[in-house]
Amino acid sequence: MFSKIMVPVDLAHQAKLSRSLDCAAELARHFDIPVIYAGVTGTAPGPTGHTPEEYTRNLAEFAAAQAVRSGISTGYHTIISHDPRVELDACLLRATEELEADLIVMEAHVPNVLDHLLPSDGGTIAKLAKATVMVVRN
Amino acid sequence: MSDAPTDQGIPDPEGQTEIIETDFEIGQDNVEGSLGPFGFDVHNPVFLISGLTIVAFVFYALVFQEQAAAAFGALRPWLTSTFDWFFLISANFFVVFCLFLVVSPWGSVRLGGKDAVPDYTYIGWFAMLFAAGMGIGLMFFGVLEPVYHMAISEPLGVPSPFAEDGTIIPENVEAAKRMGLAATIYHWGLHPWAIYAVVALALALFSFNKGLPLTIRSAFYPIFGERVWGWTGHIIDTLAVFATLFGLATSLGFGAQQANAGLEHVFGLPNSINVQVILITVITAVALVSVLRGLDGGVKVLSEINMVLAALLLLFVLLVGPTGVILADFFAGLSTYAREIFALSNPVGREDIGFLDGWTSFYWAWWVSWSPFVGMFIARVSRGRTVREFVICVLIIPSLVCVLWMAVFGGAAIDQVLSDPAGSAVKAQVIDSYNPPISLFAMLEGLPLSAITSTLGIVLVIVFFVTSSDSGSLVIDTITAGGKVDAPVGQRVFWCTFEGAVAIVLLLGGGLSALQAMVISTGLPFSLVLLLMCVAIVKGLMAERDVLISEPEDG
């Protein structure tokens, strides 16, 4: 039914991702397909890496650890942005195309009053991505 | 259990750099949480301290208005006249230092690592260089300064072409004209851009090559070591936020007054506080939209639009104005600048104290007080350039653009003043009475289609304010988030709104000039800071070169 799952990850907030990671792993085992972890990073040093290169190494380690933990096949994909916070959605949409992923599993916060005013990342991706999108509430 | 990493989309390795090993983790002092529905991720304590000091100073300027005006109003001229020698010597040093970097072997060090690719094209990059710190200045001083220096301030004692009774003294005309332009070029050419280049280079080097957070304190790592992560660094960053926010807010306040004067002159709009508050609100609102669209979708797009508009206005004045005279002025001004630069930048034994202290020393303090903001913004967009390319493009090319701009606008205005002294609006607004905000529009009046070009001028002024406000919010947010560039956007919205609010409060309650004087006064301590940065740059580049030489290719 699906051939590849993309899971957007924020390496700085791994603790908040447990539900989407578990869910994606479950689906990967069910369909026997790989999970690609997509991360967006800026070029300036940040807590998740001093250079885009180091960030990519950290993301690779993360993907490898997930493979061992969940017994699935995993990969990783770094997207570099000048303004990672604002361009997050556009970067993830581009990554979906590049990876040819047909299922996106992503974590989303429980909606609050602000979500009536501003679009959420999960909402935007669900609206604009060609792939099937599963938004997992944390 | 197979592990099949796919690595599409990852650029080539960025090459060797000398990453500074420090126990400090970026973001370790940050406080994350949410306030109601709004998430935040800010540096503790820089965010809180800078926010509170800013509120405290606004309060002081409002409640003790006369005292604040007297204190800071006197402090600024005292500093710029007492320490004029220090400002001039340091600025000269920065120019020499930058030129030295171009020819030194360190020039080949690339910001972001040996194999880093530039983040922006030349066009986008140049547009953004002007967006942060200089665009507005070019609009306001392009006509004013050349005319004023020619006729009134008498740089290096070159006499005015106007006699006491207002008649023209023909034998003084040529020298005064050349000196008027050369003195203006001096204030907008190599020296200010060298000041910006030093700060920007230090920040880019220590962030993109050494892996330290993108905040001002990182440039001090070679000097203070681990202490920059403690209170030493907190104070440096807080000072930078403070100078940036007040610098922006006070110039936004004055800018609104000036734009209002322009609107009154061109469209007959009433010159009132209400109109000015509306202007600040509109500028802040547009800046907010730009903030929400991010660096590439907001400030870059606006900067490029503005560059095209500015180029159109420049071409119009060049072609419709006295083209031959302007082109002759351009080369005459440039050659006079080249000849007189040593005399103009000589700090001791000068006779023209009025020009030296009132203009040069004031400008140097001003550029330096803006340098944390402009430097940080330039650093943010300069990753992937070599040091040599960086210095040439931040120092030489913007200087030439400024020279051309001043020659065209100043040259056209000087021509109007000298060819028809009685009928010239520029002479009336700049020489006979002193109305800086009107000067540009007075010059445009002397050319055809002035309604259209004046409107274009007002649009340019407003958009330059928007790009300053937007890039300022970006810079302040990055500093107060401890160097993180991916903090919630709500924080940028907060700083942008806060800046507009401070401007409105100071406009309504008074205190704009007092606080602006205070910001310019920070130029003195920051000049020392910049000198230290040069030491840090040399240390950083030496270490970087050593790594490049010692490690094999593609190691």
Explain what the structure shows.
- The complex is a heterodimer of chains A (138) and B (555).
- Chain A has helices at 18-31, 52-70, 88-99, 121-128, and strands at 5-8, 35-41, 74-80, 103-108, 132-137.
- Chain A starts with a strand and ends with a strand.
- In chain A, helix 3 (88-99) crosses helix 4.
- Chain A is α/β, with parallel strands linked by helices.
- Chain A has a single domain (5-137), classed as Rossmann fold (3-Layer(aba) Sandwich).
- Chain A has a five-stranded parallel sheet with strand order 3-2-1-4-5, with helices on both faces.
- Helix content of chain A is 38%, strand content 22%.
- Chain A is globular.
- Chain A has four helices and five strands, in the order βαβαβαβαβ.
- Chain B is globular and about 70 Å long.
- Chain B has a two-stranded antiparallel ribbon.
- The model of chain B is unreliable at 1-13 (pLDDT under 50).
- Chain B has helices at 46-63, 65-82, 84-103, 122-133, 135-153, 170-188, 190-209, 221-224, 231-267, 273-292, 294-320, 323-344, 353-380, 387-419, 425-432, 436-445, 450-480, 489-509, 512-521, 523-550; strands at 30-35, 38-43.
- Chain B is an all-alpha fold.
- The interface between A and B is large, with 42 and 49 residues.
TL;DR of this structure?
The complex is a heterodimer of chains A (138) and B (555). Chain A is of the alpha/beta class and 138 residues long. Chain A is built from four helices and five strands, in the order βαβαβαβαβ.
CATH class of chain A: Alpha Beta
Shape of chain A: globular
**Radius of gyration of chain B from CA coordinates:** 24 Å
Task: Please give the order of strands in the largest beta sheet of chain B.
Answer: 1-2
What is the third-level CATH name, the topology of chain A?
Rossmann fold
Q: Number of helix segments of chain A?
A: 4
Q: Percent of residues of chain A in beta strands? A: 15-25%
**Share of helical residues of chain A:** 25-40%
Structural class of chain B: mainly alpha
* H/E series of chain A: EHEHEHEHE
